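Weekly structure sync, notes
Attendees: PL (lead), two postdocs, one rotation student
Agenda item 3: pending single-chain targets
PL asked that the sequence for the first pending target be pasted directly into the notes so everyone works from the same version. It is reproduced below exactly as submitted, 123 residues in total.
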Amino acid sequence: MCRSSHVRFIRAYPQEEETVKIRKQRAALDRIIATVADYYRLDTSEILGHSRTQRRVEARQIVMWLMRTRSTASFPEIGVLMDRHHSTILHGCAKIERLIKRDAELREDLRRIQVRLDSQLMK
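Predicted structure, written out during the meeting:
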């Protein structure tokens, strides 16, 4: 009897560890959404919504790019979180990559957002 409970614990432990890892990653991704929303003075629902106004689309794509570059989340995982197809996430990340090369204002916005994210990790 003791052995079977021990075996169950050993089998369950990796799943429990994985759940903690997933929760931490989800919290980090939620923090990215909240930080970008705050920076652009948007509600998180506007980031996750389907509005196509340039301001919201750019903020949404920045969230996608930050999630991809600052976490281990895959395009499909980010897509699930943001209620988008993974190809939309791929497009958004690629667009931000292109804009970074030529848009100094965007680079500065990204720098400031990342400083905010980093300072939140210190708390």
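Discussion points:
- Confidence is low (pLDDT under 50) at residues 1-13.
- The radius of gyration is 18 Å.
Action: rotation student to compare against the earlier draft before next sync.
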